[in-house]
From TrEMBL, chain A:
Gene3D superfamilies: MetI-like. Residues 58-248 form the ABC transmembrane type-1 domain. Signal peptide: none annotated. The chain crosses the membrane at residues 7-27, 64-84, 96-118, 124-145, 174-195, 226-248. This is ABC transporter permease. It is a multi-pass membrane protein. It comes from Dongia sedimenti.
Amino acid sequence: MILLRIVVFAIMAFLLAPIVIIILFSFHATPALTFPFTGFSWRWYAQVFTDSQLGAALVESMKIAFWTALLTLVLGTGASLAWLRLKRRGRAVIEILGITPIALPGLFLGVALLVLFAQLGISLSTVTIVIAHVLLTLPILLVAMKARLTLFDPSLEEAARDLGASQRQTFARVTLPLIAPTLISCAILALAISFDEFVLTSFVAGTETTLPMYIWSMMRRTVTPLINAISTLALLFSILVLVVAAVVGRMRRAAAVADRTKS
Amino acid sequence: MLSAGKRMGVVLATPAVFYLLVFFVAPGLLLFVYSFWTSVAFRIVPDFVLSNYIGSLTSPLFLRVTLNAITIGLSTAAIVLVLAIPVAYYLVYVAKSKLILYAILITWFSSYLVRIYAWRTLLGTNGLINTVLINLGVIDEPVKAFLFSAFAVAITLVHIYLPFAILLIVSTFSEIKQDLIDAARDLGTSFLGGFFRVIAPNAVNGLLGAFMLTFILVAGDYVTPQMLGGASGQTTGLLIADQFRKTGNWPLGAAEAFLMFLVSLAVYFGMLWLCRMTGISVKRRPLEKRRAVR
């Protein structure tokens, strides 16, 4: 038992150490990435905020992440509600179609989409990047929803209908509150996934530069502590997104429960 | 005649299904068609030839990098599985630590490129690991071999794919009740016996799934080997990516992508067969459907 605990903590240390070190050295006063730590400074962060190319890449990434999350939410909500109404075969279609894309390497999806866009004469742009990203985020939403929906009791909807609620009322007051927390936290996760996606993007981005692509071009040029600062900021963003996703999930569920006990 | 509910279901599913058909199924099929075309003087010509496939399969370079990708994939997936099991076990059966769970989620969501960059700086000649080892007097000169080696690639890939594998295995273990272990322990099974004779047989399909998913994702990951592997870092993925980005021979790249896909499938069925043959995996009925012995 004690051995297990030691092993687990060692593995967790392995997972966290590189991230902690990146954060630590983003505050280093000199460009050296070695100990001893010679001093604390904000200089790399100051540089980050004056880099206009970086700013443009960041805006581009945020734009893409927003549209990806929105499209994922719309398509995913439809598919989830459909899943509840369909029987075995219909569900199987949604599951197989929806889950296969994440079991394939991003490379495969990337080149396949590139070929499609070339064949249809669609020029690569922000739009093609969003299309590609949804291919990764929609399956994740569907997987998470499936786990949630198997617990969904369709008799709740029937009960509402029996008690005289219209179809729209049933949807708004019964179905939606039950599935909304998962949908919203998945949409927020989609935001984070899109923000970080690199391999797929590199095939379907024309002249657009997203944040990961900018980091990539920096990495290839030099080892600069600037990357530490950007990484730390990106990490902060991911943590923020995770926290928001968790809080929203809990809040909405709590609200839904409270609402039900009240009326 | 469909019921109203079902008809509504079909309508609601249409956008997502249509999306996936147009942007996932169609491109996949198109890529397959492309793999039989030819590229003449940088122009892609519809054709029906097998030369892309035959050419790849008889090219020593292709075979070498594919073997490299499979080796990297299998070894990384094995290490990932071995490391993920204790963590998942701990999270499910010992302490449901929220802190550890969040730490795993954070690493999972920390940027892919950043983690590659982190290991590159850690393993470099002026990197942290070399500096520490020199200061401790373990080595006199920085070890150059840390970076740009199979070791660097493996450690980074493990770091990237471990969190996801842990989460997959946590969900597998969650379906196996604590009571089963308790019962086995009460009957005198040791701690490890409890794992190998109670949990492992029930979780084997989930574990195999986690292994295979890690394998497929790692074998297709060409960025990490490219950045950290040096001369040993060329994999099929990089070859394919270069066909599409540099060389411009898309049909050949398409054929290579499908060969890689077939190799992944072959490895998957090979593993499945191996598990069946050795008796590690048996077809089981789900726990809840098994009737109690009377």
